[in-house]
Amino acid sequence: MEILKSPTGNQLNCKGWQQEGLLRLLLNCLHPDIAKKPQDLIAYGGSGKVARNYECLIRIIDILKNLENDETLLVQSGKPVGVFRTFSFAPRVIMAGALLVPKWSTWETFYELEKKGLTAYGQSTAGSWSYIGTQGILQGTWETFNQVAKKHFGGNLRGKLILSSGLGEMGSAQPLAITANGGVAIIVEVDKSVVKKRLLSSVIDVMATSLDEALDITAGYISRKEPVSIGLVGNAADVYEEFVKKGIVPDVVTDQTPAHDLKSYVPSGFSVEEAAELRERNPHIYEEKALKTIKRHVSAMVSLKEKGAVVFDYGNNLRTQGRKAGLKGALFPSFVAEYIRPLFCEGRGPFRWVALSGDPEDIYRTDEVIKAIFKNDKRIVEWIDFVEKRFSFHGLPARVCWLNYRERVLFGEIINHMVRIGELKAPIAITRDHMDAAAVASPFRETEAMKDGSDAIADWPVLNAMLNCCSGATLVGLYQGGGVGIGYSIHSGMTVIADGTEEAEKRLQLVLKSDPALGVIRYADAGYEIAKEIAKSQSFPAKAVF
Ligand code: NAD
């Protein structure tokens, strides 16, 4: 299969920038520098795909190139199924992905249907073509470890040992975020070639092949309170058990292996190649072995928690798989309930923007502007300074920054203006992660332990998607299974192309207000005081009428 690359520059391949922006984002998800397996159309997160198959990808590209400015393409689980005449302000693409009727929402049914070619797993941003590589999750990870530091260690992680696993496309954000908060990271990764890749791209500082070697290296850094990150080649379950046996208790323990999908998690005793062979030959036995390993992995985390470590589930449904394997009880909390929810209550979430020109200077210019307009917000300024220094661009240059509902609309308008006056070389795609206030229902992650018990209520992401369609987003999608796997989440994505036109300004004004404001209403409705106050305030851009 030919690996297709996103066009760059300011020449159109489509009939308008709204379609062109989506075409570039779609192909960017498969850029070899950011995609996990571009040849299989997998962007990240175990098996998150951008299209059902290669033929569908080629058809989508062709349709986008010929799509009129008043037409809308419908994509059903990565397959283009129809083009409708709508109107110019409507989305150019709407999508639904991996959705199954609730009683049928299991991995077993999903795989059966996938085998028949009827569905595809889009994770979150892969399916909605807004994946931008590790940076997409970096600030969420940075915010999480920042909150961990504030809540448990007086504001930073200096001199603290953090144990985690998985150096995949999302998991790679961990060493950067931990060291940015001053900590010492040991990240266990079963695939040696992945550890080497992360070493070459400076995501980790050192590679180790045994726990003793890793501990020897970290000892000096911990006593000097200096940050360092070690990529340790090994299976997470084996290494976590070794910590328990040695009686060494890290300060923080978490995990980002792809535990949401038993077919992606590598069982103990298997190399990556042996695992691939067994997965192909006997998927049932493979899953059994993966589940047994996860049981040991989770049990070791519980033991470390009992011995005093701060332990949390990092959004991969590890605890649920542990319970499936026979473990009982609460085990340990989820990172969202512990650290991220207060941000959602303020309508603060993972805003991101992508330079469709392909020119890094466009992003650096927006960096200068965001730092100038929000100069009094230390968190925004520190974040942009950190990410500029530590993160080189891969694929289309992009930036992510958690902003609240007022900041998103202001910055969106400014970006559109910069495109209009020619300060940027081409339009900018404004988008976000699905892990946002109104965008997701996920009872083991974003909506775990809601104040009013509304954890499993999935109306909000559906309303969110419909509202974004009415408000004029360029792309809107509704999916299930992102992060935690089939049956455990429903979530929506959106993108608006800021092409400098008045119409784009209107789209941005409406979408960037409605999208986070619905999040504030969702948390206010659930009884969170900060959200209630914001929803009642004069400047709130919607009428909260619940
Ligand atoms: P990925 O598939 O790109 O990478 C997973 C990595 O884990 C691979 O490098 C793999 O070799 C390694 N691995 C597999 N089994 C292992 C084992 N037993 N021990 C050690 N290493 C092992 O996945 P990703 O995109 O990095 O996502 C990781 C998980 O995080 C997924 O479950 C995903 O759904 C979830 N996720 C969480 C968030 C969040 O906000 N916290 C966001 C997106 C995704």
UniProtKB/TrEMBL annotation:
Pfam families: Urocanase, Urocanase_C, Urocanase_N. Belongs to the urocanase family. Residues 342-536 form the Urocanase C-terminal domain. The active site is at C401. GO terms for cellular component: cytoplasm. Its cofactor is NAD(+). It is an enzyme of class 4 (lyase). Signal peptide: none annotated. It comes from Fervidicola ferrireducens. Catalyzes the conversion of urocanate to 4-imidazolone-5-propionate. Residues 5-129 form the Urocanase N-terminal domain. This is Urocanate hydratase. The keyword Transcription regulation does not apply. Residues 133-339 form the Urocanase Rossmann-like domain. GO terms for biological process: L-histidine catabolic process to glutamate and formamide; L-histidine catabolic process to glutamate and formate. It is found in: Cytoplasm. Binds 1 NAD(+) per subunit. Pathway: Amino-acid degradation; L-histidine degradation into L-glutamate; N-formimidoyl-L-glutamate from L-histidine: step 2/3. GO terms for molecular function: urocanate hydratase activity.
